[in-house]
Write a structure and sequence with these properties.
Blueprint (H helix, E strand, L loop, with lengths): L7 H10 L7 H6 L17 H4 L3 H7 L1 E7 L7 E3 L2 E3 L1 H13 L2 E7 L5 H10 L11 E7 L1 H6 L3 E17 L18 E4 L3 H8 L9 E4 L2 H9 L5 E5 H7 L4 E4 L10 E9 L3 H16 L2 H8 L10
Parallel strand pairs: 1-4, 1-5, 7-8, 7-9
Antiparallel strand pairs: 2-3, 5-11, 6-9, 6-10, 6-11
């Protein structure tokens, strides 16, 4: 029996949304993000083939490996045997800047971001496989970064935000806000941050109208088919699945402490020169518009990160 796929949105909800749910944005900024820092044990006696390679080794061998989430459009997926997606194309930019070929390791999301970083960046999975040189689509949070010191969190290349897609025919004048879902049906990816938010909204008054799907793609297909009136999830995924009959907007989200977040890469802490070079490549591609163009090619609006 295959293991149930846990969507990356679930990873984010567990690591950021729930951890900061009790803090307002003002409180989160005001407090020292590393106030509760506890040093972690460094991995000991681990071979270079397990923990990754430095920049010189990568350039000498001629390729660099990237961990990307599988079946996760518009960010990363396989079209037959061809890797596609926003994160894949940005990884190709990084590899080209370093003068090497990109190779992709498609990974299934674990239950937490800690586990994903442990398995794919700094230690490797318990059985089979190995770490990648760079992990794409790593949400950045200063508190989390203090806790996971085996990883360099760098190269922020986009921001992501929660939004609502809706059938224009159902809402010809005013796009829906969460309160509408007391009466109207809304699709979400199961166990995602949007699912957690709507389930707890207004003391659970929306629960009867929430329709859960295994992926955001499936949720958007249900919206397009008229099975639901709206869908809630990451803006990029909603835009990727939208059409002329589906609108997308970002309404105020009362009580949502983590409605927007930064996305970058994760690299093993021992390879700082590699991290600097990857960050330089991303910075150059942000500055000249290549990363924005990649997003546009998938029908997605690039949200610039806070740099």
């Amino acid at each position: 029996m295959s293991r149930r796929r846990i969507p990356p949105g679930h990873v984010l909800a567990l690591t950021l949304g729930l951890a900061l749910a009790c803090l307002s944005p003002g409180e989160s900024r005001a407090q020292d993000p590393c106030a509760d820092y506890v040093p972690q044990a460094k991995p000991q006696n681990v071979g270079r083939d397990i923990v990754g390679q430095d920049l010189d080794t990568i350039q000498d061998r001629g390729f660099i490996t990237f961990a990307v989430y599988e079946d996760f459009p518009p960010y990363s997926w396989e079209d037959g045997s061809t890797p596609r997606g926003i994160d894949v194309d940005i990884a190709r930019l990084i590899a080209a800047d370093l003068g090497v070929a990109p190779r992709f390791n498609f990974i299934d999301a674990a239950e937490t971001l800690d586990a994903d970083l442990r398995n794919n960046v700094w230690r490797g999975p318990i059985t089979g496989g190995a770490v990648s040189n760079v992990m794409m689509r790593v949400p950045y949070d200063s508190r989390f970064a203090c806790r996971v010191e085996q990883v360099v969190f760098t190269g922020q290349y986009a921001a992501e935000a929660i939004a609502i897609a809706y059938a224009r025919a159902e809402y010809p004048e005013d796009p829906p806000v969460p309160a509408y879902f007391r009466f109207d049906t809304v699709a979400v990816e199961n166990d995602s941050i949007a699912d957690f938010y709507l389930t707890s909204f207004a003391g659970g008054q929306l629960s009867a109208n929430i329709r859960r799907f295994s992926t955001m793609d499936a949720a958007m297909e249900a919206l397009a088919a008229g099975d639901v009136m709206a869908a809630m999830g990451p803006l990029s995924q909603l835009e990727h699945g939208a059409s002329d009959t589906i609108g997308v907007h970002q309404p105020p989200l009362p009580g949502f402490a983590v409605g927007k977040w930064q996305l970058g890469v994760g690299i093993h802490f021992a390879y700082r020169p590699l991290a600097y070079s990857v960050d330089d490549a991303i910075w150059a591609a942000l500055a000249d518009g290549r990363i924005a163009d990649i997003h546009a090619s998938y029908g997605v609006t690039h949200q610039a990160p806070e740099r």
